């Protein structure tokens, strides 16, 4: 059984979308669909059903899900056990949201190359819940995530506060609320959002992934609450603008790592770098919301 087929299955199952799965895997949607068909032919059972709400697992798909996850983790562990390049001391594996690459992950890679050039790095893309399981099973060393799920043996440490701001496409016509996608950042955000916009009609479209929100704003000339770290490049290029007088919400970012790591010295250096870079990045965000030349719609933004 091809593990790439299993990986495609897990992506579709997690996001309920062939389109999102294809984007995350950097594949054509037709390739993902072909992989799922091949997997279904191998198993002799249908794994997904499509309806107007997206893609959902069939009963057989739900039964197969934990087995697919276990198989891919076992394969990944076997592959990584022999993955340390010659001449390097050890391998350090990190996963973080993709849109934090420019602001956090890429600078951290440079930090590690400067401070521990003899440590090989592996950058993973993973789902928060799966990443925690991978940490517990020794398949990851560090995870940067938003919604921590308590797990024995895993330390969760506040890393930074991501500012979530209201943006609209630079060419959006009319009031921003007329074409607005509701981003679901969790219960606390929903409560604060409802309090801030008590008279607002519930938007017809909602999403929980930054990628979807970004693409919707750009393709549909819409508006949304999105992390400042994700929208800053678009605002600086004039493709989006901040909505004046809209409240700025805060979304905590956490570090997760094993309480008893195999190589504590290497992990300590890596964590120190992430903490230092996150502190610098947080300062940049504060400046961006107060004294920066980012394009805005109307009067200065207030928190």
* End-to-end distance: 52 Å
Instruction: Specify the CATH homologous superfamily of the largest domain.
Output: Periplasmic binding protein-like II
* Unreliable residue runs: 291-303
- Count of strand segments: 12
Main structural class: alpha/beta
Tell me, what is the CATH class of the largest domain? Answer: Alpha Beta
Count of distinct structural domains: 3
State mean pLDDT (0 to 100 scale).
85
Largest sheet: 10 strands, mixed
Q: Round the Cα radius of gyration to an integer and report it.
A: 21 Å
What is the helical fraction, as a range of percent? 40-55%
Number of helical stretches of at least 4 residues: 10
What does this structure look like?
The protein has 303 residues and is α/β, with parallel strands linked by helices. The chain folds into three domains: 3-81, Winged helix-like DNA-binding domain superfamily/Winged helix DNA-binding domain (Arc Repressor Mutant, subunit A); 90-159 and 252-287, D-Maltodextrin-Binding Protein, domain 2; 161-251, D-Maltodextrin-Binding Protein, domain 2 (3-Layer(aba) Sandwich), CATH 3.40.190. 46% of the residues lie in helices and 22% in strands. Strands 3, 4, 5, 6, 7, 8, 9, 10, 11 and 12 form a ten-stranded mixed sheet that branches. Strands 1-2 form a two-stranded antiparallel ribbon. Helix 1 crosses helix 2 (18-25). Mean pLDDT is 85; it is low at 291-303.
How is this fold's topology laid out?
Layout: H1 3-15, H2 18-25, H3 29-43, E1 48-51, E2 54-57, H4 59-81, E3 90-95, H5 101-115, E4 119-124, H6 128-136, E5 142-145, E6 154-169, E7 180-183, H7 187-196, E8 205-207, H8 210-220, E9 223-227, H9 228-236, E10 240-243, E11 249-258, H10 264-288, E12 296-297
Parallel strand pairs: 3-4, 3-5, 7-8, 7-9, 10-12
Antiparallel strand pairs: 1-2, 5-11, 6-9, 6-10, 6-11
